[in-house]
């Protein structure tokens, strides 16, 4: 039976980079005789414009029925003035919670060909390879109650709730311990347990699981220190696990350490290994439609999709190899351009990857 | 009438670096004929050991009666296993809220003499001078309800509350706008208004005040992007204002960009300009008592104290000048040591600053 991939290009540069990823998918389908069907749906601003809502019921339904989702990016100035519940981001958040995609894997890898793009000194980032595992369907992102209320004295106050249940913490910790086992065996759990009860509870539960993973060296770090240590000496980390909010901040910080955020893919998985795959970068409305966007993060997101949700390891390996090859050839989009390299468009970059397959 | 400074050395390296700052205070008292009285009290682990509580009532009382507080650092492995309400950190948090020290000013400045200590490339940080203004007595640090509860299904869950009232947001924003007016006129307010209602409320109120400060250029940034931009191009910032939790993370990240966290002071002020002054670095229990600690952040905290709470600008300027002089002379403690410089002890560094006065 053929596998189903749902494409959700979204807004900004989303459609143009998804187009390139689909060229690459066609190439690996042929080379590896994969039986994969692709369908499309609307999400984010594109869905707001067409149907008045960032996550149409039909999109969520198709997403649930597919084996994996290739997601572009959402958001842009056209929709910035909408109330929070109607914004493009709600499409993304609705998919995460609707499909229970609780495990967000965000690798921060330095491509040796792009070493000089980092704002950090070369020796501090050479060979950098961190995996940040962010809880994605809980914490303050989804906690209730939330909103703005008026107090007795007439003043207003805004409030949100940071909350984690035992089962939510244990399932993300399990993913993290297992990921560390497959990598270098080191796991750092990040919290603010000296101030926040909810994260002290997180630390207690993660510590309690360490006995089941005696081959993993578990450490704990406060989030403020983690932000410092990422800047000071990022290679001290192997796998980092943390909650939704801290993960949002630390994963972007870690991605930027590589200097090549246009290169970084991510995966969001549920218990069934159904997954949504998207670049770490956003919709970049300022360069949308100009053929300037770097499609490699989207293409590498496709590789992750093939690896994690479809189990097509050879195809995933081939794509990652091809991306390395085009970098070796000196091809660069504007975001990773450097002297002596050849500047190419979004489509030329996609074609070059296809040629290497 | 003489002004009162309360010294709270705390734990770890706190006592030894406060000792050096007091030497410097004696020197400027003499040189500028200042009438200042110094008293001492216990806080943190030291107070737990002596009196069973991290913030004895007597300490809080003395703090309230003083014009300013010179704070060392709290915490260490000896007290790590205590329950959250009894830990050394509660002493610090209790002082912040007890004195209503809502405005935390954290400069991230690169000392030209220490330019190479940064993990960032030199051109990205040369001349770096950012001021992070962190709200310090509200947000998720103090929000209620908080704790761990058992759900109907028998599962436990940990929870905290992120909450900001109108008046809390407006008073910190006022401090930030005014600070920007005195600096380069640019203010960046950091939030996560695309996800969290409480921070969308923050953005709404800060935006509403911009009209009163037409000489300040106000911008807004999501916290994940701010963490990235600090790493990518820190010099784009002048003043950053944000809530307690985000401020904790971003200020540590910004401090580390300078590579010299042992050099950075901070001030925590209330409406009356009463203030608590402390180094950005922590209690460093691993090097405590060995004469290795860098006293300069504590000494620069004293300079901030003289400037902000006592209005002794000339004395503050003189101390900052003297710190620059000892760096020019090539004196370095271990944390900022580099080739060709002279390694000195905590006390030698303090003495050298005194000699320059
Ligand atoms: C767009 C936004 C809602 C989202 C998040 O905060 O999770 C983004 O920053 C991300 O990290 O995927
Ligand atoms: C020690 C801790 C409670 C404190 C905080 O989180 O505020 C510290 O990290 C700081 O930034 O002053």
UniProtKB/TrEMBL annotation, chains A, B:
> According to its UniProt record, where is this protein mainly located?
cytoplasm
Q: Which UniProt keywords apply?
A: Amino-acid biosynthesis, Branched-chain amino acid biosynthesis, Cytoplasm, Leucine biosynthesis, Magnesium, Manganese, Metal-binding, NAD, Oxidoreductase
Where on this chain does NAD(+) bind? 282-294
Pfam families in UniProt: Iso_dh
Residues annotated to bind substrate: 96, 106, 134, 224
| Annotated positions binding Mg(2+) | 224, 248, 252
From the UniProt annotation, give the residues forming the signal peptide: none
Catalyzed reactions: (2R,3S)-3-isopropylmalate + NAD(+) = 4-methyl-2-oxopentanoate + CO2 + NADH
Tell whether Membrane is among the UniProt keywords.
Answer: no
EC top class, in one word? oxidoreductase
Q: Which Gene3D superfamilies match?
A: Isopropylmalate Dehydrogenase (3.40.718.10)
> What are its cofactors?
Mg(2+); Mn(2+)
Extract the InterPro entries matched here.
IsoCit/isopropylmalate_DH_CS (IPR019818), IsoPropMal-DH-like_dom (IPR024084), Isopropylmalate_DH (IPR004429)
- Residue stretches in coiled coil: none
Instruction: Give the EC number(s) under which this enzyme is classified.
Output: 1.1.1.85
Residues the record marks as site: Important for catalysis: 141, 192
- Compartment list: Cytoplasm
Q: Which family does it belong to?
A: Belongs to the isocitrate and isopropylmalate dehydrogenases family. LeuB type 1 subfamily.
| Protein name, entry field | 3-isopropylmalate dehydrogenase
> From which source organism is this entry?
Endozoicomonas gorgoniicola
């Amino acid at each position: 039976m053929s596998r189903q991939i749902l494409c959700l290009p979204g807004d900004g540069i989303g459609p143009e980079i998804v187009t390139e990823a689909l060229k690459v998918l066609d190439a690996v389908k042929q080379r590896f005789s994969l039986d994969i069907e692709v369908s499309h749906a609307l999400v984010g601003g594109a869905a707001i414009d067409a149907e008045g809502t960032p996550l149409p019921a039909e999109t969520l339904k198709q997403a649930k029925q597919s084996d994996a989702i290739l997601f572009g990016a959402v958001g842009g100035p056209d929709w910035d003035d909408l109330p929070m519940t109607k914004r493009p981001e709600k499409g993304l958040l609705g998919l995460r919670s609707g499909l229970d995609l609780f495990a967000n894997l965000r690798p921060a890898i330095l491509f040796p060909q792009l070493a000089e793009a980092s704002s950090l000194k070369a020796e501090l980032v050479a060979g950098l390879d961190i995996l940040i595992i962010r809880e994605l369907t809980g914490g303050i992102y989804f906690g209730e109650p939330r909103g703005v209320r008026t107090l007795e004295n007439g003043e207003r106050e805004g409030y949100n709730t940071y909350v984690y249940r035992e089962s939510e913490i244990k399932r993300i910790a399990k993913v993290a311990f297992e990921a560390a086992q497959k990598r270098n065996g080191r796991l750092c759990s990040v919290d603010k347990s000296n101030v926040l009860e909810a994260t002290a509870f997180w630390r207690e539960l993660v510590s309690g699981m360490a006995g089941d993973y005696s081959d993993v060296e578990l450490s704990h770090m406060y989030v403020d220190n983690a932000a410092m240590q990422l800047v000071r000496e990022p290679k001290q980390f192997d796998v980092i696990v943390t909650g939704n909010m801290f993960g949002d901040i630390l994963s972007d910080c870690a991605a930027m350490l590589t200097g090549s955020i246009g290169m970084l893919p991510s995966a969001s998985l549920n218990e069934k290994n159904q997954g949504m795959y998207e670049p770490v970068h956003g919709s970049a409305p300022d360069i949308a439609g100009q053929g300037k966007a770097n499609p490699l993060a989207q293409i590498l997101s496709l590789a992750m999709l093939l690896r994690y949700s479809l189990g097509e390891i050879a195809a995933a390996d081939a794509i990652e190899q091809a991306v390395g090859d085009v970098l070796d050839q000196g091809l660069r989009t504007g975001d990773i351009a450097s002297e002596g390299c050849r500047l190419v468009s979004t489509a030329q970059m996609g074609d070059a990857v296809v040629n290497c397959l």
